[in-house]
Each structure stands twice: as C-alpha cells, then as structure tokens.
Design brief:
mainly beta, Jelly Rolls, 2 domains, six-stranded antiparallel beta sheet, disordered N terminus, disordered C terminus
Length: 320
C-alpha cells in the first residue's frame, strides 16, 4: 500500500528546468547540524485560511495605478500580517517625507518608478531610481524627497502595529490611538556591509553587472530574498504544490520578467513586473519562472530560519 506522508523539509524545492519552483529561501549556512530530511505530522488547517483585510491573491500594478488615475500623491495598503504592513506609496514631484525612524524593526522599500533622494543617518544621501532596494535599520533616522518631474512610486514594508518615531526637530504626524511624548532612547541598528547595505541597485548591479546576490536583507526578524532565473521553465504539474508555512503568510513582488504562481485553492496565475502575489498561512504555494528571458521575484518572510513544509515523494510503506 502506498501512503503519502507530510514531511518537514526546510528550504526544499522541486526543480524544473533551470528554476527552483518552490524555493523561497536562498542557500545559507545552516544553523542546525542535522540537515537530514525528517518525516513528521505537520499541523495544517482543515479549512483553507481565507484572504483577510487588504490581503488577496494578486495585486496587479496596472490595476492599482488605474484606481489612482489622475493623482500624483496617494497611498494604498495591500498587505497586513502580524509582522508587516505593506503599501504602495506615490509621492508627487518635489514632495518630501518627514525625518522619522522605527524603534525596533527595519523598514524597507522597492522603488518602482520615478526618482527619490534618500537620506539615512550616518550615510551619504543617494538618488534611487527604478528597482532600487532600500533598507533602514532600527532607530536610524531617514527621509526621502522626490526629484525630477515625475512622481516616485514605491512598495514599502513597515513593521505592523508600530508607529514611527521622530526627532525633536520634527512635528510628529498624528496617528490614530497614539499620543507623542518626549522620551529617551539609545543605540541603533547597523549595516553589516555584506548582506545588509543601504541599497541594492538591482538594474545596475544584478541585471547589467551580473552580481549573484541572493539576499536583500536578513536579521533575526526579517528575510527578503532575490530569486532570479535566467530563463523560464515548463509549468510544473498541478500535483506539485510547493510548500506551506505554518505561522505566517507570504508575499512576493515581481521586479523583472514573467512568473507563474499556484496557491492552494486558487487557479494558476501569471504575473509580471510590479505585481504582488500573496499566500495565506497554511496554504501550499509555489512560484516558477516563465517566458523566454530572465525573471525575478522578491520573497518577503518575517524570519530567516523558517520551516518549509513540503510534499514528500510517494513512499511505499509496505504496511498500513
């Protein structure tokens, strides 16, 4: 008798052609000495968890832009979880943000179009354009200003449930349920000069320069990988489900080319540059490169050493 067992296999993927279709983590030094695949019972919801709040299967950039047609300055929340609040934010030419910081977590964003001058405490200001990947560690003050004649559009991930703080030179922006008071803090996060750097110029460094960077940022609470494929691959069969996460939803952003996603309970979808795709906690999901040229997705997850619960191969148990 053949039985299907559920396996706990961290970062296992099903390779099709040149693309690892279920891979969400870049290879890293394993923190565990035992890397053998272990078969176990995984706690998977009996009913598929629904999309809630602003979360949904796909936000197509074209549709988001169409819903704000005629506006240069706007904001739309598109993702919310225990860990992250994600939003599309457009700023008009000449518009500036206040100087602010987050006390306990990184804030990070992808510039989709336009240009902005970014100023981060302790760093030389820089001009960021299309597909700049920018991150700011905790308690580092930062601001941005749109330069040029077109709006600057970005997808930004902020820590969920945490309002920004401000230096005394700024008047805090009012926030619902928050009273700003004077208080003392010390210390701040840092860049390590390797994985965590102020920015990655994806177009210059990776597309044109050929840099093999697989991780955008990584710390104890955040992990964003750059999953790039040189060419598309055949669509995997429907019985290859990928993997699921037991305690957090996942979201991806396409920043190059075309990719396909299959999320449990949904139909296969094809997505392109600027589109966002989400999978609720407990749903199997997979992503794969499609089309003729290179394609890239960013995978946003709230911890680096997460478990990928994956399908095991069909085993002949020889019993019941």
């Amino acid at each position: 008798m053949k039985l299907i067992h559920w396996a706990a296999i961290a970062a296992l993927s099903v390779a099709v052609g040149s693309d690892a279709v279920a891979q969400t983590q870049a290879p890293t030094a394993a923190p565990f000495t035992n890397t053998k695949s272990i078969v176990a019972w995984a706690a998977k919801p009996t009913r598929l968890p629904p999309y809630t709040g602003p979360n949904k299967l796909v936000y197509r950039l074209a549709d988001v832009l169409a819903s704000h047609k005629g506006k240069q300055s706007w904001q739309q929340e598109v993702f919310l979880s225990r860990d992250y609040a994600g939003a599309w934010i457009s700023m008009a030419p000449g518009e500036k943000t206040k100087t602010q910081f987050y006390g306990d977590d990184r804030v990070f964003w992808v510039v989709q179009s336009g240009q902005m001058k970014v100023t981060i405490e302790g760093q030389e200001p820089f001009i960021a354009g299309k597909h700049f990947l920018i991150q700011v560690p905790k308690r580092l003050q930062y601001s941005m200003e749109v330069v040029g004649n077109e709006p600057a559009l970005r997808f930004e991930m902020r820590p969920a449930g945490e309002s920004p703080s401000y230096p005394l030179s700024e008047a805090p922006t009012p926030a619902k349920g928050v009273t700003y008071v004077k208080a003392v803090y010390s210390g701040h996060g840092n860049y390590d000069g390797k994985v965590n750097v102020p920015y990655v110029d994806f177009e210059k460094q990776i597309v044109q320069g050929g840099e093999k960077r697989r991780v955008w940022l990584r710390d104890d609470n955040n992990y964003v990988t750059i999953l790039r494929s040189e060419k598309g691959a055949p669509t995997p069969p429907d019985n290859q489900w990928g993997h699921f996460h037991a305690n957090f939803p996942e979201i991806w952003m396409i920043i190059e080319g075309t990719q396909q996603f299959l999320v449990e309970g949904e139909k296969l979808i094809t997505v392109t540059d600027g589109d966002l795709i989400g999978a609720p906690t407990g749903r199997y999901h997979r992503g794969s490169a499609s089309g003729d040229g290179p394609s890239t997705r960013l995978a946003f997850i709230p911890r680096p050493d997460n478990v990928h619960w994956t399908q095991p191969e069909l085993l002949n148990s020889g019993g019941d």
